[in-house]
Automatic annotation (TrEMBL):
Protein name: Extracellular solute-binding protein
Coiled coil: none
Range of residues in the leader sequence: 1-23
Pfam families: SBP_bac_1
Chain residue ranges for the region called Disordered: 399-422
InterPro entries in alphabetical order: SBP (IPR006059)
UniProt keyword Glycoprotein present: no
UniProtKB keywords: Signal
């Protein structure tokens, strides 16, 4: 049901034109988010079970084109009440443009670092979003029959409108484990040049790890989805895809939905990335954060309920094991599935430091340029080509450094690494 029709029905209820309507029904709240398919269905089911005693209803709009959809709605002055985004860079942009509402104090207490850094706006430091679900990125999946052999890396870089991010994940993880959280933070928050030796070294290390590839192999990786090829039951995963004679895959925890068998092993990525031992227990993470775009107090209440222990428990109960969400606080009940439990232990108990996905911290223009540069570098990893790409990214960095809007003072987040919450 579209937003106009919902508004007409609400108006009809107010005029008592629809039988059974309350004289004063609460307006439906619209939630825009990134989940479709089984993930979207589970979240929508959890929303439907949110009963606050008012009869309020919620409408979930799930889309893979989240940024484009939200930008279009904002331009039409018809934003959702709540939007769920995985990009701190985009959220920062909206806060800077006065599109976000600071969160209520009760919700801000769940703004666990590093997923929800505070922003300094007009002299006040406030919280503008809170993580609903989180993800662990510093992982390597491998075939158990080859886990002790020299890795042959699977690479699939295609992903609809955002192709390239599996490669940026590689470079971010390498930089984090080789140079440490301080350098990583400076780079992710645009306070370090792309020509810095540590940054350049992460790109060359990635090329060395992947090794020499044939033209056919390169083209296959550029055109194959990160999910691998499709089979009768959906995506197979790269480790099970025909044409990919590989043994190891660097991929985030979410990919567990294609590796549900017992033939795949999982371990932290640190031992593969040639970094100092002091950074071995440092992990790159990502997340989906809820932000309020509406003046409606009910939108604030909704985010508070979704981020509460009861809300997280309800969501987990609605989700199938393969898409069950992970949460940021170690006080949440541990998952029961072995793979989920292993990931949760790394995320909330074994980790010393968690650092948010660097490309998702960057301004959207810089992030998108990073994605494109990775695709070009994968096709041609020559040293001269890399120098040109880093120069282009440095130009974008200097052009997109935050400038406060007229009449406002604003400072983007600076701390994107933290110890596990709880």
């Amino acid at each position: 049901m579209n937003r106009v029709l919902r508004a007409l029905l609400a108006a009809a209820c107010l005029l008592a034109l629809v039988p059974g309507c309350s004289a004063h029904p609460p307006a439906p709240l619209v939630v825009l988010g990134p989940w479709t398919g089984a993930e979207g269905e589970a979240f929508e089911a959890a929303l439907e079970r949110l009963d606050d005693g008012t009869g309020r209803t919620y409408t979930y709009e799930g889309t893979r084109s989240l940024r484009e959809t939200l930008v279009s709605q904002l331009e039409a002055d018809d934003p959702p009440d709540v939007a769920i985004l995985n990009s701190i860079g985009e959220l920062t942009e909206y806060a800077r443009r006065d599109k976000l509402k600071p969160l209520a104090e009760a919700t801000a207490e769940r703004a666990y670092p590093p997923w929800a850094p505070t922003l300094l706006v007009d002299g006040r430091r406030r919280t503008y979003w809170v993580p609903l679900k989180v993800d662990l990125k510093s992982l390597v999946w491998s075939r158990k029959d080859a886990s002790d052999k020299a890795p042959i890396w699977c690479v699939g870089l295609a992903s609809q409108a955002t192709s390239g991010w599996p490669g940026t994940d590689w470079i971010e993880d390498i930089l984090l484990h080789q140079a440490g959280p301080a350098v990583y933070t400076q780079w992710a928050t645009s306070r370090l040049t792309w020509r810095a030796p540590a940054v350049r070294g992460a790109w060359t290390t990635w090329a060395q790890l992947l090794g020499v590839r044939s033209a056919a192999s390169v083209e296959r990786s550029l055109t194959t989805s990160y999910e691998g090829t499709s089979g009768p039951n959906g995506p197979r995963g790269l480790l099970h895809s025909p044409g990919f004679r590989c043994t190891h895959e660097h991929q985030s925890a979410f990919i567990r939905y294609v590796y549900t068998g017992t033939d795949i092993a999982l371990e932290p990525s640190a031992r593969f990335l040639d970094g100092p031992a002091e950074y071995r227990d440092t992990y790159e993470v990502a997340g989906d954060m809820a932000a309020v775009f509406s003046d409606n107090p009910a939108a604030q209440e909704l985010v508070q309920r979704l981020s509460s222990p009861a809300g997280r428990k309800r969501w987990r109960e609605e989700a199938a094991p393969a898409v069950r969400p992970l949460f940021p606080n170690r006080t949440d009940p541990a998952p029961t599935h072995p793979t989920e439990r292993h990931i949760d232990t790394l995320l909330t108990r074994s980790a010393r430091t968690l650092c948010f996905d660097a490309s998702d911290v960057m301004p959207p223009e810089l992030r998108d340029a990073f994605h494109r540069a990775v695709l070009e570098f994968f096709r041609d990893p020559a040293s001269r080509r890399l120098d040109a790409l880093l120069g282009q990214l440095e130009t974008v960095r200097t052009q997109t450094n935050e400038n406060p809007p007229e009449g406002h003072t604003f400072r983007p987040p600076e701390e994107i690494c933290a110890s596990p919450a709880g």
